[in-house]
Amino acid sequence: MTCLLVPAVACAARAPAGHKTTGHGHQQPKIGVTRGVRSKVSAARAGMDGGAPPAIAPDAVINLELGDPTMYEAFWREVGERAAVAIPGWSGMSYFSNAQSLCWFLDPEFEREVRRVHRLVGNAAVDDGYHLVVGTGATQLFQAAMYALSPAGAQRPVGVVSPAPYYSSYPPQTDLLLSGFYRWAGDANAFDGDAHIELVCSPNNPDGAIREAVLSSESSKAIHDLVTGHAGARLGWALVKDRDVAKKMVYFVDRSTIGVSKDSQVRAAKILAVVSDAYGPGEDDTRLRLFDFARRRMGERWRVLRASVAATGAFSLPEETAGYCNFTKQTVAAYPAFAWLRCEKAGVEECAEFLRGHSIVARGGEQFGGDARCVRVNMLDRDSVFDVLIQRLSSIT
Amino acid sequence: MTCLLVPAVACAARAPAGHKTTGHGHQQPKIGVTRGVRSKVSAARAGMDGGAPPAIAPDAVINLELGDPTMYEAFWREVGERAAVAIPGWSGMSYFSNAQSLCWFLDPEFEREVRRVHRLVGNAAVDDGYHLVVGTGATQLFQAAMYALSPAGAQRPVGVVSPAPYYSSYPPQTDLLLSGFYRWAGDANAFDGDAHIELVCSPNNPDGAIREAVLSSESSKAIHDLVTGHAGARLGWALVKDRDVAKKMVYFVDRSTIGVSKDSQVRAAKILAVVSDAYGPGEDDTRLRLFDFARRRMGERWRVLRASVAATGAFSLPEETAGYCNFTKQTVAAYPAFAWLRCEKAGVEECAEFLRGHSIVARGGEQFGGDARCVRVNMLDRDSVFDVLIQRLSSIT
């Protein structure tokens, strides 16, 4: 089974990650799922979607527990009208987008732009007989992939594992319906069974580590996890080499939601076209280059974060990693979408609780099957929120 | 547990059905699911979405196996620009639509228009403390409802039943993941257990019968099934009286797809606003009145179909039913979205196979747990397809 999956408009958030994993796409295609996360909500986030960032009060709680990629609103506001879509009332009334296609609910223009952006970035073998399957977020496709990869006629559900620390939503998403086909089996490093499905998140959520599968057997399958951009569109896609696996994934999406929003596909096609056009011949407006924007902003944020963490001495971060980027043709540092922050203060056993005392909401390490002295902090929120994060971390000594 | 669910822009297709069930909404709120269906595809349907209806060749197969509501494209083309939406590239990037809401991924404007259209039609008690939950089609909400209604800590999955003939997608949708919480248990009339969930489709898919739950016990739950309009939007909603049930349904949608397409919600809000505005004060352009259009067109189609069936003598249809409509304040006939056509010709055991010989694809009765001499025929396709259906049925003697 060979398959690669990335969320729609993923390049927005995954520019660095995308570069890092460029080689893997060709050498070892995988199935992957979104890093989209959601949990309890703070007042600071209320009503911010799409609006201008409000001023944040000195005592306001900032919620960085989630993976909201709102940092990119500034880029798309700069791009302006050319990224907008207009949808007439009469369009998209049918269940069908392409009746002749294996994935009958896949919008043909969206498919063209997905293949085009992969050719541009060079991180997927889109022209090598891969079938494209669209889903309601990569979250649905990750479930479709587990469904398609579960052994037929098994006596018991196949185990689904991932090395700790793993994405905290894997266990509840996998076991949502207590499926007879698959069941969460915990830390891959503690797994001693045979047949299994391993979830390989690279760069890893929460700690940004570059990963390959740690388990392998005749009957093992790997599902790789990439990142997300226009989160509200709830759109993801899979490039699937094996036709039967693709058909099973299409069947799953059909039965669970009878296809995928056409409106989101129309919109994603436009967003992806703007992304690719910006790197095309004759386009020299650098403000339109999403990957450049992402790399520059994420680089700045990581430098600021590492400087403030080094200054306080109260925290630590994973070492910076680097790798060769097939897109920019150079070795680049990784700037993950999340920071895996560890509290080094004596007496602090739970970093999440400690930070909450400083009005910072982050997700505790224990939820990732990891160290409670660590927290996962979203690096993709708006500048106004990120700046407050740095101010507050710097004040902790 | 009191809850009512209808698919987004449902009124487009459910004008007659909506009227028929008006009273039920108040007297006996239920959970309901979409009638969206999909199966194998014929050449006649290829590439028709949103485009002008192509001429249908004399030997072309027409596919009426599905519930595509493309009849309404003509209405929305007439409405024109006022039903269009423009979505800027920077909007909808966050997972959140309303962080303070129980349903955090529900667009507030979409919620306002849903409650407004229910007040207009008078088929749901939207102002009586009901929580609104949005889903990726009512298909997802039907699964969310089964998840929320399944008894906690049960020894085995609760049985899910419906009286035959039942919607043919109920069994495969219910058992998609072989859930430990619920399992398809077949014909409600043959069910002799206690705790169960009954799917009550009214007007019934496939035969248009007006239904109430046939089973009842201390531990029984009913889920009611209404119909769909802008199918490609993959949007449905539930009005849920019980806060805990609503919270469980929100949790299900969160874990299965991390919310619902914002783009579809923005578009549905506009479509619903146009529908309600057309019946508001100061608006006298009758071309904008969707329910009038639906009632007129469906009435014409049913009259033509019944006349041609009566003329050939080769088929029969269920008797026409009627009921009081709270919206028009009069007794009206029901014009179901599907025709449950029975072949009366001697020697024909499978009506679907017989019609396929006349280049008509319809879904065989046995797939609904019913009579193979019956087929379900879509009544909501484009005029060009419906006209060919009538020509071909009339030629069979």
UniProtKB/TrEMBL annotation, chains A, B:
Alliinase C-terminal domain sequence ranges: 227-396
Domain of life, source organism: Eukaryota
Keyword Transferase: no
GO MF terms, alphabetically ordered: carbon-sulfur lyase activity; transaminase activity
Single biological process term from Gene Ontology: amino acid metabolic process
Presence of the UniProt keyword Transferase in the record: no
Pfam families: Alliinase_C (PF04864)
InterPro entries noted in UniProt: Alliinase_C, Alliinase_N_sf, Ethylene_sulfur-biosynth, PyrdxlP-dep_Trfase, PyrdxlP-dep_Trfase_major, PyrdxlP-dep_Trfase_small
Cofactor section: pyridoxal 5'-phosphate
Keywords, sorted A to Z: Pyridoxal phosphate
Similarity field: Belongs to the alliinase family.
PANTHER family the record matches: ALLIIN LYASE (PTHR43795:SF49), BIFUNCTIONAL ASPARTATE AMINOTRANSFERASE AND GLUTAMATE/ASPARTATE-PREPHENATE AMINOTRANSFERASE-RELATED (PTHR43795)
Name recorded for this polypeptide: Alliinase C-terminal domain-containing protein
Annotated source species: Triticum turgidum subsp. durum (Durum wheat)
